[in-house]
Give the backbone structure.
Amino acid sequence: MPPSSTVDSAGRAATAAVSARPRRTRRAILVLGLVGAIALLALVVLLSIAVGSKQIPLSTVIDALRHYDESNTDHVIIHSLRVPRTIIGLLVGAALGLSGALMQGVTRNPLADPGILGVNGGAALFVVGGIYWFGLASLTAYVWLAFAGAAAASVAVYFLGSLGREGATPVKLALAGAALTAMLGSLTTALLISDVDTFDQFRFWSVGSLAGRGSDIASQVAPFILIGIVLSMFCGRVLNAMSLGDEVAKSLGQRVGLARLFVAVVVVLLCGAATAAAGPIGFVGLTIPHVARLITGPDYRWILPYSAVLSPILLLGSDVIGRVVALPGELQVGIVTAVIGAPFFIMLVRRRKLADL
Amino acid sequence: MTTAEEAVHIISHARAVRQARTVAVIGVLAMLVFVTFCVSLSLGDFKIPVIDVVKTLFGGGDKATEFIVNRLRLPRALTGLMVGAALGMSGAIFQSIARNPLASPDIIGVTYGASAFAVFAIVTLGMTGLAVSGFAIAGAILTAFIMYVLAWRHGVSSYRLILIGIGIGAIATSITSFLLTKARVEIAQQALIWLTGSLNGRDWSNVQAMTVTLAISAPLSVWLVHRLRILQLGDETAYGLGLRVESSRLGLIVVGVFLAAVATAAAGPIGFVAFVGPPIARRLTRSPGPAMITSALIGALVVAVSDLIAQHAFGETQLPVGVVTGVVGAPYLMYLLARTNRVGSGG
């Protein structure tokens, strides 16, 4: 608001201020909320580095991060195990939250999870195929298989969804994705039922976990997720327009088909890489966007950053809890996220008035 | 003719065409279901010509054929048909309540609850057979009850019901996966077969349970179709038209859960049938509302064809029917999606 000297303009400015105040306070609250969420995320990150089956005091943790000493076992644990695991948790969490928000926006469907384009189904089938036919058993090998499967499946879904006169409409994409996922699931189960060893390998991957993921996996998936995060920040305005319906979006000057394809590519980058790194984790991407929407309202320019920060809090937080509740073993993060996140999610849904999609 | 009369004429003509179409679709589907049914009764280690199967069904076969058809093959085939029909109807109900083509008992938690309970019974308590079915029913009903209670807040909105269903479903799924990772691999695989959905070794007790269920639910749900149509206009409009929204929705949910629970107990959570039946039915009949009978017939057809393939297409190995349903239903739905012209509406 420009400072004004005359009475008249001051009056006008006051009127403007009254009408602008709710919006400005709302914005300030949203910014503050985001900063608070980031602070919480930083705390969770620290916890994730410090807490584990071997207790390491916080001072040693900070020491290890600042002056790494190879002869110190604690430092080695932190450097080779906990830091990569935390980085993967951060990346995977952000990727799942963002891709979930993007997917729900582009299909205009609250039931769409990031896997609805067939990403998880394709990844699972390729991983099972790799175990079944080639006897692969390392997480590093699964990464590329899962990524290839995710990409192949989502290209197929997009192609199938865009057949017919109108091209890829939200309903057609969602139905085609669900149909192809069911088909891939059938094939996956057929392989799992016919071979015990494959099933034995696969059941641990399919739960979704951050355990045993080293820096090699982090560096494999990081570029895809980082590019995806950057690209997704351009999607907010487009999704806002598209949430009004295709016709309105078109009349607002959006090239709907192109925009939808762009968003879909970003989703595949994010969710494909996340699934490749940690296995299929459904709950985070499905629910965090709803939580973000409850806080921010229907504006995707806010939903997206909130999703990107809130998701890793849930994922890393669950991972930390999974490490301590079942000592000396640990619970897979895919299990913990739902058990912790779902009651919280249900409470939120009951408490708040829902912003419809 | 005045323009008003003309308009009335055009509208009633369009309505008659649509009705004729629905009747034709139902007729063709019923024929297909019957043919598949007879073929599935005729195939097996001992092949019986389809003609003899039909004769036996109407009480005119010889002793050996009668034994094989009525004792061995009929229970399985009938269970399959009825499970499919129940799932198809259940899916139509849930998709209409939620006004969302992605909603089905598979997705909003009911079958996940049944699965978690059943896997607990198999893996932790070492149960088999009927006991597992009992646990599955208990799980489905308990899940649905918790879901409804949690979604209640001055009434239940469809959107809130779905979101809470997602939450509860997620917890149930995690429990299932947790149990699967903790069990010995052989037992876990046995649980996986149950989770896939199978019709192996079904006998007349399953047929009885399914018959009773359908005899109660089918007329109820067809009667409720009218109310479903109004619900699809949205809660406010339905209120405005004088519908008691809450009680209608509760009635529909109870019927939908009951159908899904009994079907799951009889054959495991056969995936995809409940999801795929209604959209196919809607596209075939071109009707805007939920097509209950058509959905039921498509569900029955998908399960019957899938079981035929699962039993006989892979030589010696018999797959559980749930493995095949996805492959049978999905391509057809995709074909319809690609062909249909009025997309974006209905779904």
Observations:
- Chain B has one domain: 3-342.
